[in-house]
Structure formats: C-alpha cells, structure tokens
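COURSE: Structural Biology Practicum
ASSIGNMENT: Worksheet 4, Part C
STUDENT ID: 0417
INSTRUCTIONS: Below are two proteins. For each, the amino acid sequence is given first, followed by its structure token string. Answer the questions at the end about the second protein only.

PROTEIN I
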Amino acid sequence: MLPDRLKAFFTSNPRVAVAFSGGVDSSYLLYAAKDSGCDVKAYYVKSQFQPRFEFQDAVRLAGSVGVRLAVEDIDILRDDAIARNLADRCYFCKFAILSRLWDIARADGYAVLCDGTNADDDEFDRPGMRALRELGVLSPLHDCGISKGEVRLLSKQAGLFTHDKPAYACLATRIPAGTAITEELLNKIERAEGALFDMGFSDFRVRVIPPRTAQIQMPGAAWEAAAALRADIMAALQPDFDSVLLDLKLR
C-alpha cells in the first residue's frame, strides 16, 4: 500500500524517469512508480565510483519489479573538477551525472526525472542536492515527507530485498578532500571493502589516510568479530595499504 501523498505525485506525473542507484531509497521509488501504474524507466550510471555489487543489485531490483533499466557508462575522472576532489566535488559529480541522465531520458521521451532523496536528507549536509535543484530533478520521497525509516518499512512490506540494505555512499567519499582521486586508489578501496564483506561485515567503511593507511570504520558492536579476524583483515588489506587502523565510530 503506497502512501497517499506518493500516489498523488505519480497521478500528477504518470510518466517518469528514475535516477537509479540500486540503494534503498531509489529502489523503493522505482517500485512505487511501477505500482502506481506509471510509465517508468530506470537509469543507472556506471562509473569508477560505484562498486560492482551496487550494479548487480540495481539489475536485480529492476528485474524483480519489472522496470526497464538503461545503463550509462561514464568516465567520471575525466572531469578535473571531480578528480581533484576539492570540497565541492560532490556537487560537480552529481551535476555531471544528472546532466547525462537528463540527456538520455529526454531522448527517450521523458520530461520528468526523479531521484531517491528522502525527507531525512539535509541539503546543508549534501552539496549534491544543489545540483538537483539547478537541473530540475524531482525528489518525491523528500517532497512527500517520507523518511528513511518509512522507506525501509514500506520496502519490507513490498517485499523488496533492499529493505535492510546498509546505507552505502560512493567510493569517492572514502578519500579525504584535497587528495586527488585516481582509479588505482578507488580499486584499492573496493578490494578492501570487498574483502570485509566476504568476511561477513556489512556496516562499515574503509577510508584512506594518505599516503597508504586504511582506516576501517565500523560500529562498536563489531569489535569482537573484527578482533577475532584481525589476522585475516591484515592479510587482505596489506597488499594495498601499509597500515590498517580500526575506528569503532562509524560515520
């Protein structure tokens, strides 16, 4: 059962394109559009910033709800404003990606592009939201007052496998502002996080402290498991990092 305010949005916008990441929010938005009877198509951007599992989840979710999925490959590091990784990198990245999605969505005949920003997302903490406003991308979950908790509950009721998927920001967020982003560094982070996923961890980040230190951030409740697997963690990460630190405060 969709919230009335969300159904009203899709009644007013019966033909929409969705900027789709495969995460919790955009997955529910895609389901809601389809369940409302919309003519909807999902658009996924494949860049160096997304790990492989995110793409696999996007393909799986779109297939499970019966929505067409367009995949657009972008070499995001060709944009120097993004690769230099200054404080406003997120804005330039979001602007570049959504501009490309607008181009292909309009070519497919869509005049409305939506994203999965929810009511808990604070635009003062998310510079990429400025790009949404400037490009005229709509955020139905945000505008309808639907919080992250509600999205998870509604997703569970709808039977979406993403309902309990951990929040996952792009790989670039692991690199401190001012440190140039390279494909090699992104690959190191993806390998490190992939190794931890394989060990059974799910709620964590591997952040980089230049030049070659990995800082693993995870909740304090994971300390015992991390301590028990210390040797495995060190063995997995040391080919790419000289030092490995454990931070028990996940941010």
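PROTEIN II
(use this one for the questions)
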Amino acid sequence: MTPFDGDTVILTFLLFCRIGACLMFMPGFSSSRIPAQARLFLAVATTLALAPLLLPTLGGTFAGFSPVPGFRTLVSEILIGVTIGLMGRIFFLALDFAGTAIASFVGFSNVPGIPLESAEPNPTIAALITLTAVTLFFITDLHWEVLRGLLASYRILPVADGFSAQFSLIQFTDALTKAFMLAMQISAPFIIYSVAINVLFGIVNKLTPQIAVYFVSLPFVVLGGLFILYFTLGELLTIFTKSFGKWLING
C-alpha cells in the first residue's frame, strides 16, 4: 500500500508532469473536441492509476527533495512528456497531410470541410481519413499501448537522469521520418493516378485545343479518384493503424 505523505504528493505531481504533458499532445486524448476539464481529469486519473506502479521506483531516488533541483526536474519531466506526445502526434499530422494531398490529387481540394480532429478546417476527404484513424486508434486498443509506453519511458528515461536533448532529437527525427514515409506510402496510389490522368488529359488538350479540356476532364478526375478511394481506403487505414501500433509497441 502506498503511504500518503508529503513526498508522495510531490512524486505524484512529478508523474503528472510527464503523463499530463504527453496526453496533452497525444492523438485522441488531446482532441480540441474534448473539453479542457475532461482532458485534465483524464490526465489526473491516469496519473493516479499509474502512481502505485511507478512511485516505488522514485521514492528512494528523491528523498529530501530541494526546491531548485526539484524545479529543474519538473521542467525536465514536462519536456520528456511533450516529446513523447509530439512523436505520437506527428503520425496523425502526417496522415492529415496525406489526406490533404489525396484531396488535391482527386480534385476535391476546393470542397470545404469542417474542423474535426484539428482546430483548422480540412478538405472533406482529409477530415474523413483523420477522424476514422482516430476512431480506429481507440477501437484497436492502441490507447493502452500509450499507457504501456509511458510506463516503459520511466525505465528508458529515468527521472533522475533528466531530459536528454540529443536522445530526444534522435527519437523525434526517427519518428518524423517514419511518419512521412508512411504518408508517402498511403498517398502513392493517388500520386500515380494524378500524374497519369493529368498527362492523359494534357495530351488530349494538345490534340484538341479548341475544347476546354479542364472543364470536361474534372468530373472524370473526381470520379476516378473516388473510385480508387473506395477500393483503397480500408487498406490505407489498416496500413496506418498497424504502422502506428508497431511504433507504439517498439518505440
């Protein structure tokens, strides 16, 4: 049983700095559609749920906590949590980028959307892809992997060691590379389709300059893009969910 005293309160607040900062940026948990009070309550509840598992590893290390080193440790824990949350967030930002590119490739970039997962409005196709990915994030229980990752972070990045800028930059760069390579993989069919269809109608425009090919071709471009989206959307979301889940499990 965890004793309740002043040191326990301080160490629990230390845990809250890392866990709360991570959940503030982690996809799904940090959605602007969730009220700020609900997000705060979730961060506090998650911290209290994980505290019995993590406090025994911290109690001996920070006996006799002093103000100045304590403040440095608080800042360090917040930076670690923000880094972990941003690394998860970058995958969904890359997916949003891919969705916006797909909408542009199939001629839907001018169709206005509504802000669902992000604070700014996206094209309708991008909003659909991103919102579905967030839903799958919870349906496939990947949010539990976030909590397991937070537990593992205290073994890989102990509180006593502080924030390592070099290690965090390497990890963030690796996550950024994986995320945008994944976005390229997801949008690849539509890139090929866009190049092929525009080259085709460019040739038609050269052969028949008296016809306004742009207005004639636009419905065919949109129809073909929606046809490809219909048959590939499930596979694209499966690839994204598996890749993001693999990153969460392996780090």
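ANSWER KEY EXCERPT:
Q1: The chain has a mean pLDDT of 82.
Q2: DSSP finds seven helices and no strands in the chain.
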